[in-house]
Amino acid sequence: MNPDSIEEYDDVNEAAVTDWKSETTTRERIKSVITRTTEPTPASEIADKARASEPVVRDELTELAEIGLVEKIDGGRGALYKRNDQMYIYRQVLKLQSEYSEDELVETLQDLKQTVSEIRTKHGVESPAELAQQLDPNDHDGWEDHTTWQTAQKNLYLAKAAISFYDAEKVVV
């Protein structure tokens, strides 16, 4: 974003949206919005967020649903859309495989397990949810540990899946 252009707007968000629209295609914006859409959402709302017309959004979402990237759900009063979580996970696993070797993923897995173990021991709890229940609202270090644990747990699952894909490739290919 060009800092000089901010003065033209009363709102920095308006400047960011203008830049986003000028730097991306309508299709890219729709994909960006639907990738973050985890709850069934009407096309009109996705169109607003993507700064695109509703007919174009409906066409794009229909195409994305046909290839499995988007789930189309009958909402009673019309279709609702959300990302296909399985495809989202699959794409993240493939990205990990393209960026890291199997050995690097195993090393990362070990580091993540160590992180989780240290936080679990430090707080004497078995899960991030249990940690959240015992933390005071102003315990910044505790909440940082909570966030770190949740992130590490998510990354653990993805690393395990990527390693499993490496194992499957050895058997199948």
For the secondary structure, the number of strands is: 3
The number of distinct structural domains comes to: 2
Could you say which structural class the secondary elements and strand pairing correspond to? mainly alpha
Strand order of the largest sheet: 1-3-2
Cα-atom Rg, whole angstroms?
A: 21 Å
Q: How far apart, in Å, are the first and last alpha carbons?
A: 46 Å
- Treating each run of at least 4 consecutive H or I residues as one helix, how many helices? 9
**Which residues sit in consecutive blocks of at least 5 with pLDDT less than 50?**
none
Biggest pleated-sheet summary: 3 strands, antiparallel
Walk me through the structure.
Helix 3 packs across helix 5, helix 6 packs across helix 9 and helix 7 runs antiparallel to helix 9. The chain folds into two domains: 3-83, Arc Repressor Mutant, subunit A (Orthogonal Bundle), CATH 1.10.10.10; 87-172. 72% of the residues lie in helices and 7% in strands. The chain is mainly alpha-helical and 173 residues long. A hairpin with a 4-residue loop joins strand 2 (70-74) and strand 3 (79-83). The protein has a three-stranded antiparallel β-sheet.
